[in-house]
Amino acid sequence: MDHRFTYHNFVTNNVFSLLDPIFLVIFLFSILLLIMVCIKKTPIWLCAIFASLTVIVSGQLLWFSAIIVDELGIGGSTEDFILFMGILVTQFLALYITVLKSYKKEKNRNTH
Question: Where are the transmembrane segments (predicted)?
Answer without folding.
Answer: 15-37, 44-69, 81-100
